Automatic annotation (TrEMBL):
Residues 204-218 have a biased composition (Low complexity). Transmembrane segments: none annotated. Residues 219-233 have a biased composition (Polar residues). Residues 61-109 form a coiled coil. It comes from the Eukaryota. InterPro entries: At4g15545-like (IPR058936), At4g15545-like_C (IPR058935). Keywords: Coiled coil. Residues 236-302 form the At4g15545-like C-terminal domain. Pfam families: At4g15545_C (PF25972). This is At4g15545-like C-terminal domain-containing protein. Residues 150-238 are annotated as: Disordered.
């Protein structure tokens, strides 16, 4: 083999090479093919490893994507629950405010009722301990004194008829009963200031309101005999104290307060007797016509004096 090239090949390698140039080319081709194949095999192995790593990364990415989706779903659910909780909190706050206002209103109503109760109890106590003259008259009070106590002793209701003079005559102390046996409305008052005290009337002259009224507070037993000495044709009187007791028992707080306010207007001369009766009829209603008749009798008796 001649030196046909500039390649420097070790002598030991040249010693084993064939002398024929074609055979040397064929050997070189086979050596090159073996080198390329070995290199390709190594590259394919590396490629497989890289692909395996890539697959692992893809799995990790997929898992992370799933976790992100779950986190977003949880976030949406949490946001929805938070919004619902905020709405519920707003509703509860409004309900709490309403309840607080209701409690305050109820407390005010209770305070008013307690004041009204104390006033009524004080009024009844004053009626029971009102003095020697009231006890002599069998517990009957004038309309003026009753209105004054029931209306919490306001300046407009200190007395119905302080300037009306004598309430009735001495010979009107007896009571009339209706022909049907039921006691008719009765009227009692006290004499004007300076009048001599009269002897207490007989127990049989205390006639309560008609039998349609509750009898628990009546001052006369239902079976009391009629007063045989009563003169026919006289205007029946009304027991003022019993009338107000029945009105308190049968009317609501608002109705009774309106009734007392109506009397205040009459005492202050801001309305006439007819207007007072019309308002009283509206306050009493159709179920308490006997109260209206009794009140009409009271006004007729005292305003005509």
């Amino acid at each position: 083999m001649g030196n046909g090239g500039n390649f420097e090949i070790p002598q030991d390698v040249l010693a084993v090479l064939p002398s024929d140039p074609y055979e040397q080319l064929d050997l070189a081709r086979r050596i090159t093919a073996m080198a390329v194949a070995e290199r390709l095999s190594k590259l394919e192995g590396e490629t497989g490893k890289l692909r395996a790593k890539l697959a692992e990364k893809d799995l990790i990415i997929t898992d992370l994507n799933d976790r992100v989706i779950d986190a977003e779903t949880t976030l949406q659910e949490t946001t929805a629950r938070l919004s619902s909780a905020l709405d519920e909190q707003a509703k509860l706050t409004n309900e709490r405010n309403l309840l607080v206002n209701t409690v305050k209103k109820l407390n005010r109503d209770v305070a008013k009722l307690e004041t009204f109760k104390r006033t009524l109890m004080q009024s009844l106590q004053e009626d029971d301990d009102g003095g020697h003259k009231s006890s002599e008259y069998g517990g009957h009070a004038s309309v003026a004194a009753l209105v004054a106590s029931e209306a919490k002793k306001t300046p407009n209701s200190d007395s119905w008829m302080n300037n009306r003079g004598h309430m009735w005559n001495e010979d009107n102390d007896s009571e009339n009963l209706s022909q049907g046996g039921a006691p008719a409305p009765a009227d009692l008052g006290v004499p004007a200031a300076g009048s001599p005290e009269r002897p207490p009337p007989q127990e049989s002259s205390k006639v309560p309101l008609p039998l349609s009224l509750p009898s628990s507070r009546s001052t006369t037993a239902p079976n009391s005999p009629p007063n045989v000495n009563s003169t026919p044709g006289r205007t029946p009187r009304v027991d003022g104290k019993e009338f107000f007791r029945q009105a308190r028992n049968r009317l609501s707080y608002e109705q009774f307060s309106a009734f007392l306010a109506n009397i205040k207007e009459l005492n202050a001369h801001r309305q006439t007797r007819e207007e007072t009766l019309r308002k009283a009829d509206k306050t009493f209603g159709p179920d308490n016509k006997d109260l209206y008749i009794a009140f009409d009798g009271l006004l007729s008796r005292h305003l005509s004096s």
